[in-house]
Design a protein that fits this description.
about 375 residues, mainly alpha, Fic-like fold, Arc Repressor Mutant, subunit A, 2 domains, two-stranded antiparallel sheet, 15 helices, 2 strands, about 55% helix, elongated
């Protein structure tokens, strides 16, 4: 594989320069770390649902959140839900590995094993009888003019791909390499099933390694949003890259990098407490009240928690001037039991808004969608 070097005056070069700048600047987020962590988990769910939907899973984000709640109370397993949960588990594994885990053949096979775990392997199933192993037969890609290479050469081609991504090139080309690696992985189609889900996890891991760390000092990275917003556009650009012409490769890299740039610009806004508060959290809490999921009393306390970032039982005294401290503490404890507040630290007496529950989360999703953080088809 050869590194693609774009023309100096191209739109792709401009995107490379800006993305290189964004990954190097250290954000000074004002969003509380506990709230940010909840957002990160939500965007991992978004990433997982989006990746599964590209492959034909029709579960929407809202349906998945509802089904998760139902499955917590049932022993039955929904295949569509399990497919999405597998992707979430793989994302968590990538985050746990951070930048310490080498991106090698074993790592890629581990991702594939996580992706297809416990899924049906028969006709129409999303599992793979040879989970964690390169394919042992030839395959066709439905709707594609490209025929993947013979299975006998897959290990050699994957080794070549791994050498390409691990080769030390000037850092400004990291993201071009990631775009090229994504396409090459799809072109090789190394597994019998689950290639699309695995390549998007592979891309996420490469972005983390390239410096787009997902923590309160970094940002939320959601690469699948680029691909799942328009599945046909994704496949069209992959087909252009299959030609291995300068123009086809440039169009593919342009598609990936400009999409990533747009997503990062957008999602970085969530690091700003004031923006998050006024555009998402307060409207979501009010919406939950209007939908009858929480009471006016709960809304008032959650408004205070969202605005102040952290609250103690004494902070709600102004809302209930005639009530005792014991009564105020009971109100806070009840909200913690209902998963509407959570301790800032284990055993701590300061509490933070919790929206990772069936009462507030639907409204948070609604306002994230309204602010264009979610692809329209999720």
């Amino acid at each position: 594989m050869e590194l693609f070097v774009p023309n100096f005056n191209s739109a792709l070069t401009s995107a490379i320069v800006e993305l290189d700048y964004l990954r190097r600047i250290h954000l000074a987020p004002t969003t509380h770390p506990v709230v940010f962590s909840q957002l990160k988990r939500l965007f991992h769910t978004l990433e997982s649902v989006g990746s599964a939907r590209i492959e034909g899973n029709n579960t929407t984000l809202t349906e998945y959140l509802e089904l998760q709640h139902e499955e917590e109370q049932s022993d039955a397993q929904n295949e569509n839900v399990l497919e999405i949960q597998n992707i979430e588990s793989a994302l968590a594994y990538i985050d746990e590995c951070g930048t310490d885990r080498p991106i090698d053949a074993l790592f890629i096979r581990e991702l594939h094993q996580l992706v297809v775990k416990d899924l049906q392997t028969g006709r129409g199933g999303e599992g793979d009888m040879n989970a964690g192993c390169y394919r042992r037969h030839n395959v066709l890609i439905k709707g594609s003019a490209h025929t993947p290479p013979d299975f006998m050469v897959v290990p050699e081609l994957m080794e070549e791909l791994l050498q390409f991504i691990n080769h030390k090139d000037p850092p400004q080309f990291d993201l071009v390499k990631i775009a090229q690696a994504h396409h090459r992985f799809v072109w090789i189609h190394p597994f019998g099933n689950g290639n699309g889900r695995t390549v998007r996890l592979f891309t996420y891991a490469l972005l983390i390694r390239a410096g787009f760390k997902v923590d309160i000092a970094g940002r939320i990275v959601n690469p699948t949003a680029i691909f799942c917003s328009d599945r046909e556009n994704y496949y069209t650009h992959l087909a252009q890259a299959d030609l291995y012409t300068y123009q086809g490769t440039e169009q593919w890299c342009n598609y990936v990098l400009l999409g990533l740039l747009e997503e990062i610009r957008k999602v970085d806004q969530l690091c700003d407490h004031d923006y998050l508060l006024n555009a998402i959290l307060l409207p979501a809490i009010q919406d939950a009240r209007q939908c009858g999921r929480i009471s006016q009393e709960v809304q008032n306390i959650l408004f205070l928690a969202a605005t102040k970032k952290t609250i103690m039982s004494g902070d709600i005294e102004a809302l209930y001037p005639t009530q005792s401290k014991t009564s105020l503490s009971r109100k806070i404890k009840q909200l913690v039991n209902d998963l509407l507040l959570m301790p800032e630290k284990p055993q701590g007496r300061k509490y933070v808004l919790c929206f990772s529950n069936s009462l507030i989360m639907p409204s948070v999703v609604k306002y994230l969608a309204k602010e264009n953080f979610l692809p329209h088809n999720l």
